[in-house]
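Usage example:
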Amino acid sequence: DAKTTQPTSMDCAEGRAANLPCNHSTISGNEYVYWYRQIHSQGPQYIIHGLKNNETNEMASLIITEDRKSSTLILPHATLRDTAVYYCIVRGTTSGTYKYIFGTGTRLKVLA
Amino acid sequence: DTEVTQTPKHLVMGMTNKKSLKCEQHMGHRAMYWYKQKAKKPPELMFVYSYEKLSINESVPSRFSPECPNSSLLNLHLHALQPEDSALYLCASSQGKANTEAFFGQGTRLTVV
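Running the assembly step on the lines above writes:
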C-alpha cells in the first residue's frame, strides 16, 4: 500500500485559502489520491479525488504534481466549519478489491 | 442519496455479552467496509466485502465476526470483547470501481465494560 505523509497540524485564517500538502512518493501508476475530512468524531466526509489531472469541485481543488509523488488540497476560502482532521489517502487494492488506508492526517484549525 | 446508516449510535456492552452493529446503504454499492477508530487515531480497516463475499480481513481477532446478508446490509457481530475494543466503529460503502469514492456512516460508539 502506498504510504502518505502529511503535516501533523496547520492553522489558517478564516477567509484565506488553506493549502494542505501530502507526499505519496511510492504511489503506483493506477492508484488514485483521495481526500477525506473528519470533524470531531463524525464519520469521514469525502472531499475530492484524482488520478493525475488537477480536479475541482464545490468543496475544494486538488493539485497533483506531474510525477504524482505529492498533492495539495486547496480550500479556497476557509471557514470555521472547515476545522477538522484532513486525510490524504492513496487507494490501494488487495486481490482486486479497493481499500482506503488512512494515514495520520493533518489537523487543520481555522482561526477567526 | 449518499447515506450510509449505522445503528445503534451508541452501545455499551459487557465482556460476556453478544451484540451486533448494523450498517445499511441503498446506493447500489457492491463494496462495504468496517473500520475501527480509537480516540485521536485514524480509522483502521478491519474488513471489506465485495459482492457480498468477504474479500479482505486485516487480521482481525475472531471476537469480531462480519456478515453481509445482502448487498445493502453489513453486520458486525461482537462476542467476548475486551475493554480495549472500545472505539468508534465506522462503516463505508463504494461502487468498487476505479473512479469512484467511498461514503462513510456516522459510526457506532462502542464501550466495553
